[in-house]
Structures are given as C-alpha cells and as structure tokens.
Amino acid sequence: MASFKVPDIQGDESLQQNIFNQWQNTGQLAYTPIRAKRRSRALKGPDSRIGTGLESAIAKAIRDAATRGEKPVFYPAMGTVFNSCQEAWDFYNLYSWEIGFGIRYGISRTNDNEYMTKMNIVCSCEGRPEHEDSDSIRTQCKAMIRLLRTKDHGWYITRFVGDHNHPLSESCGENKQWPSHGHIDSGTKDFIRKLRENNENIKDDIGKTQQLLEEMKTKDPLMDVRLKVDKEGRIKSMLWSTGKNKLDYKSFGDVVTFDTTYRTNLYNMPFGLFVGVNNHFQSMVFGGVLLTSETTQDFEWAFSQFLSIMGGKAPVTILTDQCAAMEAAAKTIIPRARHRWCRWHVLKKAKEYLGHVYSKYSTFKKEFHHLITYVTSRRRFELGWISLLHKYNLGGNRYLKRLFRKRAKWAKPYFMGVFCAGMTSTQRSESANHMLKKYIPRAAPMHLFVRKFSEFQYDRQDQEDKEKHLTKLKRKAAHFNVPIKKHAKEVYTRTMLGHFLRELYESGAYAIADTSVDGKFILVHTSEDNDPAACKTEVKLAADKKGISCKCGLYEHMGMLCRHQLKVLVHLDQRSIPEHNLMKRWTKAASRSGDGMTAGAAPNHGTEEARRSLLVKMAMELATTRDIPDEEYTSLMEAMEKARSASRDKSNTHNSNIETTGLDKPGISLQCPLRPEKKGRPQSTSLRSWQQGVKRRRNIRTGDKSMDMLLSEDEENPRGGRTRSVQELL
C-alpha cells in the first residue's frame, strides 16, 4: 500500500503560489510520494474448516437434547465451535425458531486478504428505524452472537446476548412471519418441536392422553370418546368425535368416505378418518379412529361405535378402498348403506399394469382417462371400453378384465344413480391425510397426536368460516343472464353456485329435438345433430312443475340440476329451481340449526360456550343498571353463589365420561399400545406380493429404481421418493 509524504504548506502563501506555478508549467508537483515498505501479516485461508471429521454443533445439540430439560435444544453457548459461518447461522436460526424471533447478518470484518475474521449475527429488530414515525420493526434490540475465527479456519462464539427489548413470537403462525425462518423446512420444524415436546417420559403418555381428553370434554360437553382395550388394559382402538363433528354429521352425513392410510404416530397405529363434504364442497371430518390392526372385527367395532356416537344415523353411501375387511364390516354394520370402491385406489396402479401401453402410445392415456372420467352413459362406457381394448390390442390384459368385471363398484356411469354428493373416491380422505402431515410430526406419542389432530380440525373450521364469509359478501361473475339464475344466487353457496353456472353454460350446447304432451323432452348435443347414432337424453317435467328428472342421473348422484334439466327450464322460462330439485345440503341454510349449537362454533365450543356468552352479556347489562332493588340484588347474589358452589363441586367430583370396552377386571389401569419392533403394514403372503418382491430385488440389483417406485404400495412414502431426513440438517 503506497503512502504519500506531503509537506506542511498551511499558512505559507508564497510556497503555495510557487507550487501552483510549477504545476501549471510542468504538470508536476514540487514534492514526490514516498512508498512505505510494509509487509502484510493478514491471515489467509478457506472460508470454512475442511474435512475435520468432527461432530457438528447441530448434531451435538440434537444428541444432548434429552439432557436439556426445558432449555432450548440449540442454545448458543459461549465457545461453541462451528465448521463454517453458514453452520453458525443455521444453528442460531434454529435457536431463534425455538425462542420466537428472527435473525439477519450484522457487522462483519474482512482483512486485506479478503479473509473474513469477524461476523455478527443479530436479531431482526436490531438497529434504529430511518424515521421515528415509520412502521419499521427495528427496536434497537441488542440480542446477537459474535463469531471469530479459530486457528484451523473454523468459527466460535465469543459473545452471546440473549435479552430482547420486544415481544417474542408465541405461536407457530407468528414465528413463520420472520424472513429467516423461511429457510427452515417444515420437516426440521416438526423435528425440533418433537425434540422439545417429547423430551418427557413416554410411560406417562396414556395419562397425558386421558388428561387431554378430559380437558377437551370439559370444554366440549358433546364430545364423545370410545376406547377398546385388551385384558391387560392396553388400548387396541380409540375413536373420538367432537360436538362440531356430530353437528356436521347431522347436516352432511349422507355420504361418508373412510380410509386408514395415515400411520404417523409412536405406535405405528393406522389412523382412520370419517370424512364428508359440506355445502361449500369442502372436506369435513366427522371423526377419527386409531386402530392397532385392520381386521374385519376392528372395522366392525369402528363402524358400530361411530354410528352409536352419531345417534344411530347411518350414511346413505360409504366409500372405501378395496380392502375386503372394510367391505365385510360395512355389510354387517351398515347393510342398508350403498358401498362403493374408491376410484382413486382402483386406478392408481394403472401405470404399473399399463406402463408399456402408456409409453408406446401417446394417445392412450388421454382416451383412457376421458372414458373413465367424463362418460356417464353405461352403453357408451361399455362400447368405448371394448373399442379401447381392440384399438390398443389389450384384450388379454388381466388387470383391465378385472376392472371391467367389477365396474359396478367404481365406474362413473354406475354411480350416477347412487347419491355420492359429488364424491366418487376416498381422495377426500387422502387429501385430509396429506393435510394432517402439516400438523402431526412423525413418531408422535398419543397425547401429542390427539392435540395436533384437534388443531387440524380448528384449521378446517377456519376454512369453512372463510368460505361462509365469501358466500355472504363476494359475488360470482356470470356472463349470461336467465331468469332462473337469480333464484340460484339467492339459495346456493358460492361454490355450488359456480357448479350451477357451469352446468347452465354447458346447457347452451344442447337442442330440444322432440317434445310430448306428458312433459317429456328429448335433447341432443348440437355437435351430433346429423348423427343417427347420436346420444339422446330424455328429460321429464312433472305436471305441477315441482320436479324435473333426467335420464343422465346427475341429480340423483350429486343433488344438483344437470345441463339437460337446465336447458328445459330455461326453454320454459322457469324463474325458480323446482321445489323437489332443491337439495337443502347445498344451500346457504344447510347448516343452520336451532338446537343451541351454531354451525360456526369452534370444535371445542358447544352449548356451554353459548350459555357463558349469554351469562356475561346479562351480567354486563345488570352492572350498568343504575337502580337495582335490595331484594333483587340479594336474591341475585345468592343465586350466583349457589351456581358457583355447584360448579366447584362438579369439577371436584368429575368422573371420566370416556366409554371403555374390554376393561372388565377391576384394578387394571389403561396402558399404551406396544411399540412395534418393525414399522409398516404386515407383510403380505400372497403369490402376487412374492412375485413383486422378487422383481423389486432384481431391479434394485440392476439399479432400476423407477419400477420400484411404481411397485410401491405405500402411498404415504413411496419407495424411491425423496423424503427429508435429519441428515440433511446435520
């Protein structure tokens, strides 16, 4: 680095003038720079330690988590050593997630060799705002860690300030708002939460579960819990429904899907969901059940207890997967309900059995999926199926033969006369299982599973309330105007109005080919006007005009008018939806109830919450009253004291209302299920499963993982699929 020795010319005007004149004449100054000979002693090296083989700070913190008690798992103690600055930032960011604040990089120092020697990582609220009246989050918070370099190019903490001068985030929703926490994936967040919440004795899991259920029942008197235990008192099955679940089932329990694919808990118990659809076409949970096995007897117990909780009301239709045990239990417990297979489960292996056709013919997939998704006529479906087999030479395919033989259980044309509320698969349960993963961490103990499932139901309630709000305030745009649309806007919810308008739009493509005196109309699609084999649809209007039927069966399947019915009603200038074709479950008034519970109540709210609100309102009115006679005041205080004493006595002598079956011997207490030594579903012993295993092992040896993914039967964690592990964090 060059340094210049400049003579002191301040105050000497003659010397200044001479130097200036010389510069003008020669272009040079009267003094010359002198270079100082300095040797750079600054450190050089890589940005981080390379190949040390030492345990990282994050791995050490995870290993010692069990000994920390209530302290944070990732505590930035003085002297903590890191391999890189990024590792230190990740460590402090995980600590900030636990505590409830965000972080960012602060002041750093770099030497002449561009080698960073110091780094401050500070709270996001560090520093002062540019203007006092700005909406900045900066509060001059001093919380930070200071990092310096080690001799082997690592980093270590030399200063840690843990005090904050601002409120910390309390909930997960608040914590997610800090920008630095966007770098932490959800799997890591769940892992940290599990380390902290499960840093307790698992032996007391059943006690915590009982206590939690009792607390939930205290807040929600209508909640029901059913347990099935063995002779030793170990839980075999547990089913529960909240008061809100039971109220929803009253209004929307005509169609139920049931599936048991979710196994994320400490005991690897299958978790079954009873799911329906509300008047906003949203998935809603009616109940959850934990099972230790999936036999016919287990499903019979689950179905019978579910019906008992719901007052004996059986669904009109139940959708399950192809599990034979479920089908047998459904026939025994709910014989009058129509049982259908989940179309999603039936077709999920189409790629496995038809993979060679998919890859060989680019048009097959489009034609196959159009046939099974959009065709509603049985005749057209069967002709289309035969044509497809002939076109692609699939007449000998055993998978397609079996599908066609069982088509009445899953194919759409055979569903049209069966009311399914628009659901033709248990993918509602699948999507609910997918949403559960956001709330319930892996290997969660039972009490944590129950608590997180309750939070999941709160979220579903929030989504329902949001749709109610939009239905009240937001209009659905429509680019055509007919008399019947006005009535539909008045009665239907926003989502179902959208479905109505789509069918109304499609009705414009149909023409009335023939009419008769008895109210029959024959409709043909305009694209098939000159086709003698065109599909003709018959619509019949009742003489009193209070009902209209169609051969396509959409109304019987979904409870909404089809495009053919709407074509006739528009042709007749009908101003309202026929009385017999207005299904209440899709209207705005579907969930209104006069039994004291509101449909919008939270899952743990019930009549007790409503009475409490009314009591507070009455007390406030009395408190603001100026003149209360002495006699009324005395009697009022006596009544309040009597009610308070009764409430105390009830809470002190409160007994468990959890119904338990199988616990016959006195003195035996409830116990947790046994933790499995090997996770996963029991191994199948079928010939087909053995053949798949041989093929899978051969593919693994040859390095072909794509086929292994197709053969995987575990839809939650398909083999070969990328899943986040703790190793990525380490």
Q: How are the secondary structure elements laid out?
A:
Blueprint: H1 13-26, H2 57-63, E1 81-82, H3 85-99, E2 103-110, E3 116-123, E4 144-149, E5 155-161, H4 172-175, H5 186-197, H6 205-219, E6 224-229, E7 235-241, H7 243-252, E8 255-262, E9 271-277, E10 283-291, H8 296-309, E11 317-320, H9 324-333, E12 338-341, H10 343-347, H11 350-353, H12 355-360, H13 364-374, H14 378-391, H15 398-405, H16 407-410, H17 427-436, H18 446-473, H19 483-491, H20 494-506, E13 510-515, E14 520-525, E15 536-541, E16 548-550, H21 554-558, H22 563-571, H23 607-623, H24 630-652, E17 659-661, H25 687-702, H26 706-711, H27 726-729
Parallel strand pairs: 6-17, 8-11, 11-12
Antiparallel strand pairs: 1-5, 2-3, 3-4, 4-5, 6-7, 7-10, 8-9, 9-10, 13-14, 14-15, 15-16
Short description:
With 730 residues, the protein is of the alpha+beta class. It is built from 27 helices and 17 strands.
Question: In the CATH hierarchy, what is the superfamily of the largest domain?
Answer: Ribonuclease H-like superfamily/Ribonuclease H
Largest sheet: 8 strands, mixed
Task: Give the strand content.
Answer: 5-15%
Number of strands: 17
Q: Can you name the CATH architecture of the largest domain? A: 2-Layer Sandwich
Region (Disordered): 644-730
InterPro entries: FAR1_DNA_bnd_dom, FHY3/FAR1, MULE_transposase_dom, Znf_SWIM
Biased composition (Polar residues): 682-692
GO cellular component, one term: nucleus
